[in-house]
Fold:
Amino acid sequence: MPENIVEQIVKKFQTNKSLYIGEELTIAEHMIQAAMLAEKNNSTDQLICSSLLHDFGHFIIQDPDLLVTKYLDGKHENVGYDFLNNYFNPEITEPIKLHVQAKRYLCRDNTYYNLLSNASKISLKLQGGKMTEDETKKFTSLKFHRDAITLRRYDDAGKKPSIKMKKIEEYKDLLTVQLMN
Structure:
């Protein structure tokens, strides 16, 4: 039964052709690029898997573009986490849940903030803006905050249109191996 989830995930990647909100590539291409960056940087298999699935919540949310036009945060990180947590270990799902908080944390540095795409700056406002000191203390006390920060950097860099992309099918074995027993 759990192996079936890999087929469901692959199918979502194959069939969802929605552009990533405000970007020039699809959500699927963006997530694959993030995973490719994790691989290129010799990340763990768990962090590669997190990078591949970090925006999976956008595949579940009904019309994420509409939420943005209404200035609402769909909390895609929680939606994805809630779904994926049934099949994958915390080493994979926790960085996914925390990757928006990682953006808010990193945005305390104006140099980082200025590197964000316009779409990311808009979503930052919807997601609560830069972290306060109290939020920072809480975030940095979490077990997977460092992985979430690394994932966030792959997320930010994985937005290049028209690069040579791997196919989602190339990640089936990785996803299968990472399933909870």
